[in-house]
Specification:
The protein is mainly β and 637 residues long.
Length: 637
């Protein structure tokens, strides 16, 4: 029994020892596992903090590019080389450095820590410089462009000036006036007629994509062209050439240059300073043609003086008058009246002759000759002028910006507030706009309440800040703070009425992007700088409209001072009524201008765009992600 009891005790001790070893081993494994899990968690949190450093650096760089869309890479990095911060967890930190590597890429190196855990990573970005855009012609029209039509009535003057030199009609250093003859009235679509009616003057060119009618003494100092028929009446004076793809007719007035057409030409009591040519018939009554008259069809003169010869492969008729420089006719000749003079009897014809008066010898040689003996010069056909023409004479397409898409791209899905500026105070409530925030300096019942904050967006490829509203009604005052560019998106209508005012100071700008109707009433005043372009190249006041309703989408009535604005509304009618004047440029589907004030195109707009760079579609600087580069921290022993 004693031996058995001892054996049992030894067995129990052995089993107890083995169990203890198992328990201790399990406890050790648990401690090791807990430490491994803790270290992994610290490492994971450190990795997350490292990533947060990269993303915080990206946000800082993007904010820098948003503040200055055309900033270069050196300036961007110099202002944003270090980024650091903390996480929401205890003892979680990140520190990032931003530099340019040897390849010219932006390298963001970020280190994240949590307790003893550390992690490092790098992100590589390509920097794409902004600014340039295309270097072609500005998208802003050279005066007045109507996609489907232009109608100008009244006694106003349409001309141009350079706002970079001063205000319109200012006296310049050389003693001249700040005006020029670079305005351009044009249409684009095949149905785009131009009607000019009144006693006003256009100091520039007129180009109609369909018919062109100028009546009641309106004058044009430059060239005029019609892709359809061209009709001048009522003493119209043209300082340059007149050309028509179809027919031309004029009664009274003057054409200082040449006249050309593909079909008939009819001229009555109109002196012409150059040539007259057409593939069709030509009929001229009275006055003097200083150049040559050429046709492939009938030429008929009635009491007209021709200074430089006549050529036709058709027939020729002359009733009185005189021709100098010779007459060459491949068809028949009919001198219908006594005194129908051909200087020096310089006549050659190949058909039949009928002669009244003292020139019966014209019926015989050397005047009557074979057809092969008469050479008729080629007549250059009049071509249709379109934006795609090799020589488009500055004609733009109707909507080079694709404005409907551009405006849809900056629309937001959430509801926007109405903006209402009351007129209850002595001078009206006052809203002041900066680039990213607006607030009421005077408020007696205006809405919305409190600060109005802009949202980051991209419009026409340029990063910007935009104030979003539904309807905007201004009965009081609105102003832009000096040296700020403000952009408003109006999903509904924009209306200024009564004694309301809008003030844009020097080197500031206001851009209105609108989907509804835009209207400035006759009592409203818009105050803008003399220089219509900011230092960075933006028009001081711009309206971009995608309105497509049946009524006029843009209406501007002049107050007591000239209004400066750039209007871009290719899908709606633009109405300008002013006894004072409009400065800037206008593009609409149909443009109607009425009043004694006229339109003064600002040639400085050739170097302007929404983003501040010349040409179409200036771009903001941006970062393009190229990849990650991980640099794990080595574990210490």
């Amino acid at each position: 029994m004693k031996n058995t009891s001892g054996f049992t005790l030894v067995t129990v001790l052995i089993l107890t020892s083995m169990a203890s070893i198992v328990v201790l081993s399990t406890l050790r494994d648990s401690v090791i596992q807990e430490r491994l899990s803790g270290n992994f968690q610290k490492k994971l949190n450190a990795r997350l903090m490292s990533e947060k450093g990269v993303f915080s650096s990206m946000e800082k760089l993007e904010a820098g590019m948003l503040a200055d869309p055309t900033i270069n890479i050196s300036d961007l990095i110099a202002k944003n080389s270090q980024v650091s911060g903390t996480g929401s967890l205890e003892s979680s930190l990140y520190n990032a450095t931003i530099e340019v590597d040897s390849n010219g890429d932006v390298l963001i190196s970020s280190e994240g820590t949590r307790f003893e855990g550390e992690d490092q990573m790098q992100a590589i970005f390509e920097f794409v410089a902004g600014g340039g855009g295309t270097t072609g012609a500005s998208v802003f029209s050279r005066g007045i462009t109507g996609c489907s039509g232009v109608a100008v009535t009244g006694s106003g003057l349409i001309d141009s000036y350079d706002s970079s030199l001063g205000d319109y009609n200012d006296t310049l250093d050389d003693g001249s006036q700040n005006t020029s003859e670079q305005s351009f009235v044009s249409t684009v679509n095949d149905t785009g007629d131009i009607i000019l009616n009144g006693s006003g003057t256009i100091e520039g060119d007129v180009l109609s994509s369909n018919n062109l009618s100028i009546t009641q003494g309106a004058d044009v100092t430059g060239n005029i062209h019609s892709n359809g028929n061209l009709i001048l009446s009522g003493g119209v004076v043209v300082g340059g050439d007149a050309s028509a793809y179809l027919s031309f007719s004029q009664s009274s007035g003057t054409v200082s240059g040449s006249i050309s057409a593909n079909q008939s030409i009819s001229i009555q009591q109109t002196p012409v300073g150059g040539d007259v040519s057409s593939s069709g018939s030509i009929s001229i009554t009275g006055n003097t043609i200083q150049g040559t008259v050429s046709s492939y069809d009938l030429i008929a003169f009635n009491q007209t003086i021709i200074r430089n010869g006549v050529y036709t492969s058709g027939n020729y008729e002359q009733t009185g008058g005189s021709v100098f420089g010779g007459v060459r006719v491949q068809g028949n000749v009919n001198l219908k009246q006594w005194g129908s003079t051909i200087d020096g009897k310089d006549l050659r014809y190949a058909g039949n002759g009928s002669f009244q008066g003292d020139t019966p010898e014209y019926a015989f040689s050397p005047y009557k000759v074979s057809s092969s003996a008469i050479s008729i010069p080629d007549i250059e056909p009049v071509e249709k002028i379109t934006p795609e023409s090799e020589n488009n004479r500055g004609l733009t397409t109707c909507d080079p910006l694709d404005i409907a898409t551009a405006i849809d791209d900056v629309s937001i899905n959430t509801a926007s507030p109405d903006l209402y500026i009351n007129n209850n105070s002595s001078a009206g409530d006052l809203l002041e706009l900066e680039t990213s925030v607006a607030n009421f300096l005077v408020d007696f019942g205006s809405t919305p309440d409190g600060d109005i904050n802009a949202q980051s967006a991209t419009f026409l490829d340029s990063a910007t800040q935009i104030f979003y509203f539904d309807d905007v009604t201004i009965k009081g005052r609105m102003q832009v703070k000096e040296n700020y560019n403000a952009v408003m998106f109006v999903d509904g209508d924009f209306t200024m009425s009564g004694a309301s005012s809008l003030t844009i100071p020097d080197n500031s700008s206001l851009t209105i992007i609108i989907k509804g109707k835009f209207k400035i009433g006759s009592g409203a005043q818009v105050y803008t700088p003399d220089n219509g372009i900011t230092d960075e190249g933006r028009p001081v006041f711009s309206i971009y409209s995608s309105y497509t309703g049946s009524s006029s989408g843009v209406e501007v009535s002049g107050g007591t001072r000239e209004l400066y604005a750039v209007i871009y509304a290719p899908y709606t009618e633009v109405k300008i009524t002013s006894a004072v004047g409009f400065k800037g440029s206008i593009l609409g589907d149909v443009v109607t201008v009425n009043g004694a004030g006229g339109v003064h195109y600002d040639t400085a707009l050739n170097e302007a765009s929404f983003g501040g760079s010349s040409g179409s579609g200036g771009t903001a600087s941006k970062l393009v992600f190229k990849g990650w580069r991980f640099t794990p921290v080595e574990e210490s022993d």
